[in-house]
Structure formats: C-alpha cells, structure tokens
Amino acid sequence: MNIWVFAEISGGKLDRTALELVTKARALGEVTAIVLGSSAEAQAGLLGEYGVKKILAQSDKVFEEYLAEPAAEVLGTLVEQHKPDLLLIAATYDGRDVAARLNVRLNSGIITDAAEIQFEGGKLKAVVPAFGATILVDVTLETNTTKLVLVRPKAFAAEKVAGGTPAQVEKISVAIPERAKRARIVENVVQASDGPSLEEASIVVSGGRGLKEAANFELLKQLATQLNAAAGATRAVVDAGWVPYSFQVGQTGKTVKPNVYFAFGISGAIQHTVGMKGAKYIIAINKDADAPIFKFADLGIVGDALKIIPALTEELKKRKH
Amino acid sequence: MNIVVCVKQVPEPTGTNQINPESLRIQRDGIDAVLDPADEFGVEAALQLAEAHPGSTVTVVSMGPANAIEALRRGALARGADVGILITDDALAGSDTLATAKVLAAAIKTVQPDLILCATESTDAYTGMVPGGIAQILNMPLLSFAKKLTVSNGKAIIQRQTAGGYQTVEAVLPVVVTVTGSINTPRYPALKGIMQAKKKPVAQFTASKLGLSADQVGEKGAKEKVVSWTPAETRQAGTIIKDDGTAVEQIVTYLASIKVI
Questions:
Q1: Which of B14, B97, B129 to mutate to test binding with chain A, by most A CBs within 10 Å of its CB?
Q2: What ipTM was reported for this prediction?
Q3: Which among A24, A262, A307, B136 would be 20 to 30 A from A74, CA to CA?
Q4: Which fold, B2-221?
Q5: pTM of the predicted model as reported, rounded to 2 decimal places
C-alpha cells in the first residue's frame, strides 16, 4: 500500500498531528509525507525520526499567505499524478479546509473524523465515533481511486522508530494558478497562554457556563497554575468571549488526553465531551446532579464550582509549603 | 447584496441520536426536527449584513425531507430571510458530503450570490465538508471558522479561529464564509415575522431539475458507505458525592490516590 500523509506545517513548524498520522501510516504501508510551506525541506529530519523514508516538499511561502487553495492545488495535482492508495489529512482547521476541496476536486468522497484506519483484504475500513462517541461506525469508501481520510487529532499516538534517519527529500514545484490565491491571510494573532499547552498538559482544568461570568475564569487559571495544568473551556465559554478560542476543548476545539481532566461547571454536552473523553481520570464538579458529565466522571461532586475552585487552590498551596 | 445561507434541519439536538438499523443512517423519522442551532448564526449574520447593505436579499437554501420546509420557515424566514429554496427528493436520501455539496451548489448557482454563509459544521453529522465543497464547485474562496465578519468595498474580511488565536483573512466577493457561534447573538423570531414567513416564497427543486443525475446523489451516488456500527465502550460513572463541605478534601484524597499529588 502506498500511504500518503499531508504533513501540515503551522507557525513554521511541523504540526504535532503530522507525527501522529505518519506513525499510523507506517503500520498501513509505505509512507510518503507531503510537506508544503516555506520550511518544507527542513522537516526531513524530524519526519525521518518517525519512520518516514520519503517526503515530497514544495518550499513556497504562498502556503502561509493564502488559505487552503494553494495546498489543495498541489495535493490534488500530485494525487492525480501518483494515485496513492490513501491520503491522510489531520482534522485541523487548515486540514479540514484542504480536505473539503479535495473531496470535490478528486470526486473521491471522504471519510471524516476517523479514529481508526485499517485495510481488510485490501478494503479500507475506518472507525468513526458518532453521536458524541456513543457509537462507533465502520465506514468505507467504495471507490477505485485514492481514498481520502480526515483523521481526528490525538486518535493515534506519535511514536519514533529506532534508528530513524532523515527522510529522502524530493523537491517538487507544482504550478499554483493565480485563482488559488484568493483568501489572503492579512495577519496572524497568537493569543498565548501561560503554562503548558492544552495538548501536552498532563492535567487540564476546564470551565463551562457554570462559572457564571468571565471574571471567574481567573479563579480557574489560578488553580491551573497551582497544578501546573492547562486551562480549558467549553464552546459556550469561548463563544461568550470569556477566553480566546485557543482554550476550547471539544468537537470544534482541541482534543485532549491528559492524565486528569477537571470539569468545573460543565454539563457534559456532546460537543465538549468528544474532546476530553480520552482523559485517564475525570473529575467533575457541577451544581446539577443530573448533569450528563456525572454519567462518566470518575469522581463527581455535586456542588458549587465557584466555592470549590478557590478553596482547592488554597489547599494545594498549603500542601506545597 | 445577494446573500445565501445554507441551513439544515436536524433531529432535536437535546435528544439522543439514533441509527436506523436498516438504512444505517441517522434516524429522522418520528424524531422532532428543528433548524440546526448552528445555522442560526449564519442566518443572523446574513440579516445583519442585509440591514447594513439596503437592497440586499437573503435566500436560505436547504436540502432535506419535504417537512424541512418547516425548519426553513420557522428558523430562517420567520427571523427575516426573504426567500427559501428547498431541494427535496427521495433520491437524495443517504447523500454523502460530496453529493450534498453538489446539490447545494447547483441550487445556489441559480441565485448568483455575492456571499454564501454556512455553519462550520452541522450539529448531527459534523463532517464540516460541505461549505468547502460548495466553494470548490462554485470556484469561490472559502473564509472559514469566522468569529467576525465584515463586508465592504466588494471584499469580505473575517477573523478566523485558529488553534493558537486567530487570523485576519480577506477575499474579494463572491465568497463562502463559515461562521462560528461567537459571531453574533441570533435574534428570536417575532410574532410578525412568524406570520409573514407563512407567505414567503419557498422554491422547491428535485435533483434532476438541478441537472444532477440519480447516480451522483443519494444512497446510490454515495462513495462513503456505512458498513456497520457498534455501541462505544462507555466510561462508567465513578463515585458521585454531594458536597457536604468536604469537597476539597475528597478531591485532594482522590488526587493522592491516583498519585497526582
């Protein structure tokens, strides 16, 4: 099997999802990573550590200047030329935009949100969690062309190979027509938060509507600092503008798999839980005893998050001294 | 300005979604259906832009069963959208994302829009593949995940949600824009609007009327096939206690038991 991975570059660096996808791709067949961006060729070393033998790299800053279309042009052209068996794309913001265009351009159909991928007797089978991951659906693409699969971030853990060597770089220069340069990125604003990132933190402390108002989110951040945790939020909270979107955990936000996940004032809507159900331990605090989150929390406390958060912060502070 | 909003009727989102054991599709028969709450933001964004650009028309477009006309009227026309288009046809049942994009794009084309608004994804199937598909078919740029949208001098400018913050992105009209829930606060339909909605025109199309052959759409045209499904392994509820003043102690004890502190 010829497995291609769109190894996304974000902020000049290889996105973590690229390493997750190539790790999975290794188990399925021979891996080629497609790297598009001004630092494309520089990714050969890191991808090699994760077992990639070959990359197709197009170094051009056009990929950072315009949304999706330049990348979709290059990927579409390459797939039409080389006809790999499978193209994996991560379900990031940019990945989703590129995949939606390829679905049409290649007239291929697409599997979205895959959490497992395998070939059974040459036939693709992907597992897609549906209805808030309450059921697992086996889906396939009944086509003879390249299969397009959008993969959920964190579905696969990135693993290095022993003695990996830099991938062989094949420079490519697919022509990008002017008409693909339309959605122009005027500025990039990074709203950095302190402490560990949501994706990497071993403890995540999240808040929902139950925190009542934006100012109370500060209490949550103080607790996060005390636990060396990352602070997270539900869609309702980011939509309300209490904290930036970079805090969002859930379907449209980030998928996290920490050791411990605190859910303060979070009812447990499907939109949110799909992003955190992979946590090893879940501790939920909510006033409403019927909140769905209590159905799967390891420790559930029916109580007032606004009282418990500062008290817990104080207690942890004391213990440190 | 000629504004189109794509909307979808979905099973009542607070209910529990089910799979029809025979068709392996989302169970829609006998389930309360509403306009997808995620679409209310697109409708609101369209209405606000129409108010800011007098002479604009807001057309809501939907593909769905015949009764989806109710969601169109109650959810979109009652709020102030001018015209509806419903593509409904038994042959469309079971359409995948590719077929859905083709159908909606064909219907939208008849309107010659300057701006097409969609939710980032639907609440029931959440693939998020349709807006970008429409953009590709209609040869338009896609401005995605917009938490802010302005249109002036023939250009659309958005703030686009990213993993680390946001980007400002612009494109010349016509464009497709997907909007997130933070873009606005949707208005409630007023009684007057609800009454007026009953009389607003809703054009109905079948797939063939849009020039799409039966093998391109519906179950027949779907490339993505559901093979089977299984209930996911569910996490069991652990210890649930009512806070009697010992909540902090309980949490600390628990954290110690799992060796976090």
A1: B129
A2: 0.92
A3: A24
A4: Rossmann fold (3.40.50)
A5: 0.90
